[in-house]
């Protein structure tokens, strides 16, 4: 009887261990570190992280590979206008450019040492960058030259242009809008008292901004009026 009980015990333990091994076999560690941002063009996607590395997928995210950026500073912004042409930004005013899908990256001169948090391009030539201490930069030649634009003194977290003339940016608790391609910016009223982190528009009228404490605000008139959503 004792022998039989011992055999049963061994069988049960073996089954449990086998089950645990199968359980862990279902989990695969894909990536690590702090991932800052992601951008996709079709099935091609890029992710920035805090070790100066870029992760790239060419199959909709099923598989990822490391691309060497040539820097070790923390990276934040990423924007591509095609599967080959894109930009990355990060600490110390870093802006990197690629025209081969990220196989190689070339530094561009931003003219600032402030962290650049966000990038947005309306074309391969016309682009915007925003970051710490009210940093706003504009290029009309694909980043060969970046020119400072005075909008606000607060950290700029997100910029969005549904076309080349109409754009919005969020800077801490503030929203700013341009209707002339960024020559002039006017403040819009944020109905919350929360910091806003991202803004997006589907056209020149309908847009959303999100931020801290679960804040979501929405406009249907180009930002003349913003209302909270839950």
**Share of β-strand residues:** 35-45%
Query: Main beta sheet: strand number and arrangement?
Result: 4 strands, antiparallel
Shape: globular
User: What is the mean predicted local confidence, pLDDT?
Assistant: 89
Q: How many individual domains?
A: 1
- Assembly category: single chain
- Please provide the ordered H/E string of secondary-structure elements: HEEEEEEEEEEEEEEEEEEEE
- For the record, the CATH class is Mainly Beta
Share in helix: 10-25%
Q: Could you name the CATH homologous superfamily?
A: TolB, C-terminal domain
User: How many strand elements?
Assistant: 20
N-end to C-end Cα span = 65 Å
Q: Helical region count?
A: 1
Radius of gyration: 23 Å
- CATH structural fold name: Neuraminidase
Tell me which CATH architecture applies here. 6 Propeller
Low-confidence stretches: 2-25
Structural class assignment: mainly beta
Strand order of the largest sheet: 1-2-3-4
What are the key terms here?
230 residues, mainly beta, Neuraminidase, four-stranded antiparallel sheet, 1 helix, 20 strands, globular, disordered N terminus
Describe the 3D structure.
- With 230 residues, the chain is mainly beta.
- The chain has a single domain (33-229), classed as Neuraminidase (6 Propeller).
- The chain contains one helix and 20 strands.
- It has one helix spanning 2-25; strands at residues 35-41, 44-49, 53-57, 65-68, 75-80, 86-90, 95-98, 106-108, 116-121, 127-131, 135-139, 147-148, 156-160, 167-171, 174-178, 186-188, 196-201, 207-211, 216-219, 227-229.
- The strands form five sheets. Strands 1-2-3-4 form a four-stranded antiparallel β-sheet, with no helix packed on it.
- A hairpin with a 7-residue loop joins strand 3 (53-57) and strand 4.
- The longest helix has 24 residues, at 2-25.
- The radius of gyration is 23 Å and the shape is globular.
- Residues 2-25 have low confidence and may be disordered.
């Amino acid at each position: 009887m004792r022998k039989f009980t011992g055999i049963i015990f061994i069988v049960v333990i073996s089954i449990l261990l086998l089950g645990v091994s199968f359980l862990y076999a279902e989990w695969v560690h894909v990536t690590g570190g702090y991932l800052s941002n992601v951008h996709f063009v079709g099935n091609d996607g890029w992710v920035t992280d805090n070790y100066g590395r870029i992760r790239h997928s060419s199959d909709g995210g099923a598989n990822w590979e490391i691309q060497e950026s040539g820097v070790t500073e923390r990276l934040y912004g990423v924007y591509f206008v095609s599967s080959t042409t894109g930009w990355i930004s990060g600490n110390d005013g870093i802006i990197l450019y690629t025209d081969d899908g990220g196989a190689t990256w070339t530094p561009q001169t931003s003219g600032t040492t402030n962290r650049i948090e966000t990038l947005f391009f309306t074309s391969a030539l016309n682009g915007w960058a925003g970051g710490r201490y009210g940093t706003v930069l504009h290029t009309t030649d694909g980043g060969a030259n970046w020119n400072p634009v005075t909008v606000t003194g607060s950290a700029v977290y997100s910029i969005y242009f549904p076309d080349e003339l109409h754009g919005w940016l969020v800077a801490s608790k503030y929203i700013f809008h341009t209707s002339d391609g960024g020559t002039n910016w006017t403040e819009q009223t944020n109905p919350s008292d929360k910091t806003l982190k991202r803004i997006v528009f589907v056209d020149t009228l309908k847009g959303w901004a999100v931020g801290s404490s679960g804040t979501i605000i929405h406009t249907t008139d180009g930002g003349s009026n913003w209302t909270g959503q839950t």
